[in-house]
Amino acid sequence: MNSSYKERIARRLTLxxxxxxxxxxxxxxxxxxxxxxDSIDRELQLxxxxxxxxxxxxxxxxxxxxxGEWEEMEHAQIHLNPIFIEVVDLEGNSLDRSPNLxxxxxxxxxxxxxxxxxxxxxxxxxxxxxxxxxxxxxxQVGYLLLAKSFEDARKLLNNLRxxxxxxxxxxxxxxxxxxxxxxxxxxxxxxxxxxxxxxxxQQNLNERIPESGTNDEIGQLTKAINNLxxxxxxxxxxxxQFTSDASHELRTPLSVLRGTLEVLIRKPRTTxxxxxxxxxxxxxxxxxxxxxxxxxxxxxxxxxxxxxxEELELIAFSEExxxxxxxxxxxxxxxxxxxxVPIYVRTHEKSLEMILQNLVxxxxxxxxxxxxxxxxxxxxxxxxxxxxxxxxxxxSVYLEQIFDPFFRVQEVVDSGIPGTGLGLAxxxxxxxxxxxxxxxxxxxxxxxTFRLDFNESS
Length: 458
Ligand code: ADP
What we know:
Layout: H1 5-51, E1 55-58, E2 61-64, H2 67-72, E3 83-89, E4 94-97, E5 118-122, E6 125-136, E7 139-149, H3 151-199, H4 217-266, H5 271-303, E8 310-313, H6 314-329, E9 333-337, E10 344-347, H7 349-365, E11 373-379, E12 383-389, H8 410-414, H9 423-433, E13 437-443, E14 447-454
Parallel strand pairs: 9-11
Antiparallel strand pairs: 1-2, 3-4, 3-7, 5-6, 6-7, 8-10, 11-12, 12-14, 13-14
Helix pairs in contact: 1-3, 4-5, 5-9, 7-9
Adenosine-5'-diphosphate (ADP) is lined by residues 362-363, 366, 389, 391-394, 402, 407-409, 412, 419-425, 448.
């Protein structure tokens, strides 16, 4: 069903309240009926106590202890809450009855229970009746039948029932509309939030939903959406920055390339001049292909979601890596490990290899020719690999930025050390994807230590 939230709240609350009210009203009616019946039954009991001793039966005729009183009593009247009395013999044959019964008789029950009253009628009059045995000289000779009008009590009970039946739907209808109104009022802020959220697009991502200043659920929702918008805005800005940085980085070697070729084409040159210019052109092309390769690598890491982690023994893996990189690239790394037992970690092997390769290359690139690079495997609280160099180091102000795409320390650029500024961005992404914690300690002029912390497999 496509009903609104406020209607659903109102309907559910009304349904629950309907149940509660039904129970309460039912109980009220029950208690009222019980009280009315009980009070009439008690009155009947009093009448029985009053009259039981006044009658005695002698030779099938009723005699009275006080004949005058009997005739004057209220039983002669039929209105004003009258009491009806009839005396019957053991078979139920009427011997005498109060004049207010006129030609009617009270009901005789052969299997009566003397303590219990029951409902009966004479004509259209509803009665509450009891039946008690009559004794003469210790011998049961008949029954005394007593009844009291139930009209007033019935009227009272009927009135009560009608009032409750009338109030019940009225209360429910009032309740439904009040609940609907209140629910509507309380979700108004949600409507504002959804309206405002719908208005926010890529163009006005800097806008925020007005916060109410309270810390209730609505306030928390507003904050959560605003935080999400903040994160989205930052991500968009990073994306824009990345695209503009990438274009800029590619445009620089392209301009050099174009400039060199334009100069070359202007007039014929000597073979030496051609050789020099072509070398510069090739350097620009190398620079561009390095950037493109790194960009592709970064894109692959960003797209390669859910890398499958596998178990890997860190010491053997690192020794193999050191041998391999020495053979392929000629890097002479010093391997160190004081741990005598195998260290098993869960990570992604190919990613770890790329991370180490990037860090080791940087270690050599930013050290003097005679510099040494160490690869140290250790185990403190966690299993670790450290790539330690004693090169130029990094100023502490740049320690955060070196992981941003295209960031290069200006001094490094000025020194003409080749690079794209993408290597550490790739390392950071790879570490995130492979459950490795990456950190760096560096001191300018003294060297840097890049540290990888692993989750050990149990
Ligand atoms: P690239 O090496 O291509 O410039 P990276 O992303 O690998 O790009 O490194 C970013 C910057 O961080 C480098 O330009 C350099 O300034 C600094 N850097 C990285 N590794 C080291 C290191 N081992 N020693 C000193 N500086 C480093």
